[in-house]
Write a structure and sequence with these properties.
This is Beta-hexosaminidase bacterial type N-terminal domain-containing protein. This protein has an eight-stranded parallel barrel with strand order 7-8-13-14-15-16-17-18, surrounded by four helices. The chain is of the alpha/beta class. The chain has helices at residues 14-23, 42-58, 96-112, 148-153, 160-173, 260-276, 306-322, 347-363, 385-393, 419-425, 453-461, 496-499, 501-512, 518-529, 533-546, 549-556, 583-587, 616-626, 631-646; strands spanning 2-5, 34-37, 64-69, 79-85, 88-93, 119-121, 127-133, 178-183, 204-207, 224-226, 231-233, 252-256, 280-287, 326-335, 375-379, 400-405, 436-441, 470-474. The longest helix is centred in the first third of the chain and has 17 residues, at 42-58. The chain has three domains: 2-121, Chitobiase, domain 2, CATH 3.30.379; 127-514 and 538-542, Alpha-Beta Barrel (TIM Barrel), CATH 3.20.20; 543-646, no CATH class.
């Protein structure tokens, strides 16, 4: 145990401190904070820094906080706060991360002016994760990097101090404990695979201005054979059509010079910092992709090719040996596999021969930490339970979980979406005893700042946590890195997690403590914006009310997939692209049948007296059947949600 006055250099004596204070009487006075903790534990050091900042901000001179760990293997990330005296607070964590969370809570309550009381807390949701489609390089994209968000954020993926460090610190503050990085084939940028010395990529490249095709879905950047359509797909970034995207093409722009050794050192630093903040790393893969390795050492995208299988198996082994912070490998049986192949040539079999055996090879290596577990998370998408069980789970020496789209792409729709019943129950996963992760996809709101504590609290409260470890929250086709589209110079380049701080904070903190009430969130807004109590409550209530707009739209006229509808733009995408949707076209089904939408179907056996959603036309028909239609009355009802706030403005 070590006591540190952490606002001062640790080697300065009290006399030296006094002399400094005397010599700087004209400067703002610093505040000493007594925080007792083991400085060898990075989580406790971070929590101590948070407490120091809070004490300095609130001008507290009489507070001592102790941070200790009392290990409890049965209760992860829990903590107890004891108010031992008016000026002494003790935080005891069941592990280092629990103690960190307790320290962060003390810091937050100090800043918010809330009373610190004796409490015992444990996570409501065990795994509170982020889904991050990571754009490593234009030559090795994630599944859909066809948008500006991916291309403009490539450089930030290679910036530890400017991006990853503040990003991971915020995730820890908001109580997230899983970061899942979704990619197609990251290995040429993360490992040097023995025997495959050419399968590496030096430097970092993005797509040159004016070249990016936003309708490409990012799937085929190089010329590739699609076995499902039985035809070649031309890769528009592969300008010389040699089957790979590289510096010989005129479509790329250099972002940064880096050797493969520098890249490996970068990711070791990122992953270690995540671990120091109590955040586990999962690397998720779509299949079958070999970006950066295609054409080298005989490597192809053929899932039956022995050279390709041997290479990926060796690369996976090297990855998990090099990065001990990786606790899970995620796999998807798509989006570039041959779905017609079965048995030993199936995609599920390919995934075992490569990823599964790669991890098992690492476990057999003398360098392996015998206390370490790497679990697999197999996506429900494009596969079946029996195939996963036969070709993968029955052979893998370790834990296997499953992941489903809990709300497809519509996180902001219903608090109790139907997908669990159709994907987890009917899919047979629960019957076989699998734990099922929830992929909660936000393909609704990217630019606008959203914030409804009531919505998040109930959405999380409705989760089937008896059968699920937790969730991974994120988007497809959008990268939550830095803002790239703002016309305001001061906001351009802002961290997305900073711009959308309220949203990220709601989902993380309410997943840890689902009982955080609206008084807490009003106090949070009061502190953030320097408001009085009345204005803070008004902002909280108004923000919560307007945040129901997109969910109500999605419930009334539902399209689940990401490309089918963009709420922020009022438009549809892909084959049914319409441009701006008018009210008659969108709500009332006028025009071609492809635009006529049905309401969202909710989970069966709804709680309380809730009923299923109805479309606007169906509601209107039923309404007219029982009463005369009075527009003024209807408008008054609609306006009622906003009137109470407008009267204060």
């Amino acid at each position: 145990m070590q006591t540190q006055k952490t606002l001062w250099p640790p080697r300065m004596s009290r006399l030296s401190i006094a002399l400094v204070v005397v010599s700087t009487l004209l400067a703002p006075r610093s505040v000493l904070a007594d925080v007792e903790f083991d400085s060898a534990i990075p989580q406790l050091k971070f929590a101590a820094q948070e407490i120091d900042r809070a004490v300095a901000e609130m001008q507290r001179t009489d507070l001592t906080v102790t941070l200790t760990v009392k290990s409890d293997n049965k209760l992860a990330e829990a903590f107890e706060i004891r108010v031992a005296a008016p000026n002494r607070v003790e935080v005891i964590g069941s592990d280092a991360t629990g103690a960190m969370y307790g320290g962060i809570e003390v810091a937050e309550y100090l800043k918010l002016g809330l009373p610190i009381a004796n409490v015992i807390r444990k996570p409501f949701v065990a795994k509170r994760g982020i889904k991050f489609n990571i754009p490593l390089d234009a030559r090795s994209p994630s599944y859909d990097d066809s948008g500006d968000a991916a291309n403009e954020n490539i450089e930030h993926m290679w910036d530890f101090e400017g991006f990853w460090k503040p990003y991971l610190d915020d995730l820890a503050r908001y109580r997230y404990n899983v970061l899942s990085l979704w990619t197609c084939h990251p290995y040429p940028h993360m490992v040097k695979t023995p025997g495959y010395e050419q399968a590496i990529e030096h430097d970092v490249y993005k797509v040159r201005d004016g070249v990016l095709k936003h309708d490409s879905k990012g799937k085929f950047i190089a010329r590739i054979f699609d076995p499902n359509d039985d035809e070649w797909e031309e890769g528009y970034l592969d300008s010389n059509q040699d089957g790979v995207v590289d510096t010989k093409d005129d479509t790329l722009e250099l972002v940064k010079r880096m050797t493969i050794d520098e890249k490996i050192a970068h990711w070791k630093k990122v992953f270690k910092h995540a671990g120091d903040r109590g955040i586990q790393i999962t690397l998720f893969h779509w299949n079958v992709f070999t970006y950066g390795a295609t054409g080298k050492h005989g490597i192809t995208t053929d899932q039956t090719d022995p050279d390709t299988i041997a290479y990926l198996r060796a690369a996976v082994k090297e990855l998990v040996l090099n990065y001990p912070s990786i606790t899970a490998i995620g796999v998807a049986a798509g989006e570039n596999d041959n779905k017609f192949l079965k048995g030993d040539d199936s995609t599920e079999a390919y995934i075992f021969k490569t990823y599964g055996l790669g991890v098992m090879d690492a476990k057999a290596d003398p360098r392996w930490d015998k206390n370490r577990e790497v679990r697999f998370i197999f996506r429900n998408h494009s596969t079946k339970c029996d195939d996963v069980q036969e070709q993968f789970a029955s052979k893998y020496d370790g834990s296997v979980d499953v992941e489903i789209k809990y709300c497809v792409g519509r996180l902001y729709s219903s608090r109790r979406p139907l997908e669990w019943e159709s994907r987890a129950n009917k899919g047979g996963w629960l019957e076989r005893g699998y734990k099922v992760w929830m992929n909660i996809r936000n393909d609704d709101i990217f630019m606008h700042r959203w914030g409804s504590p009531d919505y998040v609290r109930q959405f999380i409260g409705e989760m089937p946590l008896d059968e699920s470890p937790g969730f991974m929250m994120g988007s497809d086709g959008y990268v939550w890195g830095r803002v790239f589209y703002s016309t305001i110079p001061d906001l351009q380049g802002q961290l997305e997690i900073d711009k959308h701080w309220y949203n990220f904070r709601l989902w993380g903190e309410l997943a840890y403590n689902n009982e955080l009430g609206n008084e807490y969130w009003a106090a949070t807004l009061k502190h953030r914006f320097g408001l009085n109590d009345r204005s803070a409550k008004l902002l909280h209530d108004t923000w919560q009310t307007v945040s129901e707009v997109v969910p109500q739209i999605n419930r009334a006229v539902y399209e689940g997939t990401d490309a089918a509808f963009a709420a922020e733009g009022c438009m549809t995408g892909l084959a049914s692209a319409t441009g701006f949707l008018t009210i008659p076209l969108y709500y009332y089904g006028e025009g071609p049948a492809v635009y006529r939408r049905k309401p969202m179907q909710l989970r069966k056996n709804p709680p309380g007296d809730e009923v299923q959603c109805v479309s606007v036309p169906d509601w209107g028909t039923a309404y007219l059947a029982v009463t005369s239609f009075i527009p003024e009355r209807t408008l008054s009802t609609i306006d009622g949600n906003f009137g109470q706030h407008n009267r204060h403005s």
